[in-house]
Amino acid sequence: MRIATWNINGVKARIDNLLHWLREASPDVVCLQEIKSVDEAFPADVLSDAGYNVAVHGQKGFNGVALLSKHPIEDVSRGLPDGDGDEQARFIIGLVAPKDGAAVRIASAYMPNGNPIGTEKFTYKLAWMKRLEAWTRATLAEEESLVLAGDYNIIPDPLDAKNPEVWTGDALFQPETRGAYRRLMALGLTDAVRAVDDNAGIYTFWDYQAGAWQKNNGIRIDHILLSPEAADRLVEAGIDRYVRAWEKPSDHVPVWVELRE
DNA sequence: ATGGTTGGTAGCCAA
C-alpha cells in the first residue's frame, strides 16, 4: 500500500496539480494538510471521479486536513481523539482496510507553525505536541499498523535544512520543538524517509520567497512516522520533489511510503 | 541587506 502526505496550501488553488499528481503517482492513500476549505466546499466529487473515497475535517480560511483513499475509510475521527477539542482543524484519522490486505490506521496531521516564538502561538504549538505525544503513547499500546503522516512544522536536525543557522530563531527549529519531537519519536516511531536515506539535502518545503526553490534552500518538515508494526512492513519511502517545479506549486511536495501487505 | 510570495478573503492574517 502506498501512503502519501502533502500540504497542498489550498485545495481550491491546487486541485489541477492534485489531480495531475494523483494520476502520475497513483497512491492508495493521501493525507492532505492546509486544504483551507470548509467540508462543504471540498471537491469530493472530482476526487471520487478520480477513484478516491474522501474524509474531510475542514474549517474556513485556514488549516484543514483530509484523507483520500482508494480503499474504504472506516472509523474516522476528526480532531485529536483525546476529548480535549480544538478550535483549529489539524487532525483526522481513519482505518484504511483493503479488501485483500492488512488494515492500516492512518492520520493526517497539520502541526501548528508556532511563529513567532515567545507568543501564544508557540505555546499552542508545544501544547499540541504534548497532546499528540500522550495520545500516541496510548495508541501504540494497541500494537496496530499506525501511520502518522503530515506537516509537522518541525526541522528535526541540522541535516534537515540547507542553511540551519538561519532557522535558529524560528519556532520550527527551537530546542523545545525539537525536544518535543524527540520525545514523540522515543515512543518507538520510525521516520520512514530517514529509515531509507540518512543523507543531508533531503527537503520537503521550499519557501515561495527569495528564490528558495531555485537555490534549493529547503527544509524537511513533512514526515511519515510509523509504529513498529507498520515499520516492519516498510518497503520504500520517497519525496516527489519534481512537483515543486510545476506551475502554481504548493510550497510543500508529497512524501510517501510503500508498505507491504 | 530584517527583504519577499502565496492563498483565502475582502482587510489583513497566516505561513
Question: Would you give an account of this structure?
Answer:
By secondary structure, this protein is of the alpha+beta class. The protein has a single domain, classed as 4-Layer Sandwich (Deoxyribonuclease I, Chain A). 24% of the residues lie in helices and 26% in strands. It contains six helices and 14 strands. It has helices spanning 11-25, 44-49, 120-140, 175-185, 192-196, 228-231, and strands spanning 2-7, 29-33, 53-57, 65-69, 73-78, 91-96, 104-110, 146-151, 190-191, 205-206, 218-219, 222-226, 234-239, 255-259. It has a six-stranded mixed β-sheet. Strands 5-6-7-8-12-9 form a six-stranded mixed β-sheet. A two-stranded antiparallel sheet has the order 10-11. β6 and β7 (104-110) form a beta hairpin. α3 (120-140) runs parallel beside α4 (175-185). The radius of gyration is 17 Å and the shape is globular. It starts with a strand and ends with a strand. The structure holds one DNA strand of 15 nucleotides.
